[in-house]
Design a protein that fits this description.
Rossmann fold; five-stranded parallel sheet; 11 helices; 9 strands; alpha/beta; 14% strand; 311 residues
Length: 311
């Protein structure tokens, strides 16, 4: 397979396993580019990409911008906080105004789940979802799975536990979809109040005991507590959460096999992870950040290629 089966990257749910493998193989090539003294290729020299962020973002936004610049694309940055959205402009009007400037690809983060699906039906540009509410965050799931593949090889049959705030996490949902498509076994672990009722239906088992979860897994992907999305109290206190579900060195030392620790960031140090775990040899958190640029380069390149074939 040399082309993606889809025009957009709206969610992992809409990708085939072959699409994911193609993205990984393309990222392998771009990772070689990123390790060269000159880290730039002219692949997207005539392509214009608009980054539309209707929600705050640091790592994802910088990672996309870097990926776009490494591919020599022309980049337009848009931030909702300093735009006409504040004056009541609709999403469609905002995007149409940007497209009138002849934009080819749109990278968008939006607080409304499904905003990207709505947009894909109304505009001609290829759309990449950089996070929609508590729904999906496909490039994060791809870079997570890619980082696991780097350490474990083929993910078929490998055991992954996602720890923490599953209920409010778009990363958890995209990760479960992605890992299932790659044949991994997935469990989630966290307080019952932070695990959605439907989780079994999308291919993840539940484990409430942190010790058992760590003993079972090959990779622990730890999510932060998303206090900004919690309108009610889901657990007594952060201290209580940390004591029951936080991962510390003592817990890891009890596990009689090496496991990899991951985190999509930003880390609440001392809450879901202690610093001695986040900075340990078992942690591949910084590799995730590095791989994020290669994965996003691959996605941008493949969607631009699909666009040129269809035009």
């Amino acid at each position: 397979m040399s082309q993606l089966s889809t025009r957009h990257l709206i969610g992992i749910k809409f990708l085939k396993p072959e699409d994911i493998q193609l993205i990984f193989e393309t990222a392998d090539k771009f990772k070689e580019v990123l390790n060269r003294p000159i880290k730039k290729v002219p692949s997207l020299r005539d392509v214009t990409i608009a980054n539309l962020f209707f929600e705050n973002s640091t790592r994802t936004r910088i990672s996309f911008e870097l990926a776009e610049k490494r591919l020599s694309a022309d980049v337009v940055n848009f931030s909702a906080s300093s735009s006409s959205v504040k004056k009541g402009e609709t999403l469609l009007d905002t995007v149409n105004n940007i497209l009138a400037m002849k934009v080819d690809l749109v990278v968008m983060r939006h607080p409304a789940p499904g905003a990207h699906i709505f947009l894909s039906k109304h505009i001609d540009a290829n759309i990449i979802n950089a996070g929609d509410g508590t729904h999906e965050h496909p490039t994060q799931a791809l870079l997570d799975a890619y980082s696991m593949r780097e350490k474990l090889g083929d993910l078929r049959g490998k055991k992954i536990v996602i720890f923490g705030d599953i209920l409010h996490s778009r990363v958890a949902l995209s990760n479960i979809f992605c890992l299932n498509k790659l044949g991994a076994k997935v469990k989630v672990c966290g307080p019952p109040t932070l695990i959605p009722k439907y989780i079994h239906r999308i291919g993840a088992e539940v484990e409430y005991d942190v010790n058992k979860a760590l003993a079972w897994c090959d990779v622990a992907n730890v999510l932060r507590i998303q206090l900004e999305r919690q309108d009610i109290k889901y657990f007594p206190s952060l201290r209580e959460y940390s004591r029951s579900f936080g991962i510390n060195k003592k817990l890891l030392d009890r596990v009689d096999k090496p496991i990899y620790i991951m985190h999509p960031g930003p880390i609440n140090r001392g809450v879901e992870l202690t610093s001695d775990v986040a900075d340990s040899k078992q942690s591949i958190i910084l590799q995730q950040v590095e791989n994020g640029v290669a994965i996003r380069m691959a996605v941008l390149y493949l969607l631009a290629e699909k666009r040129s074939h269809n035009s």
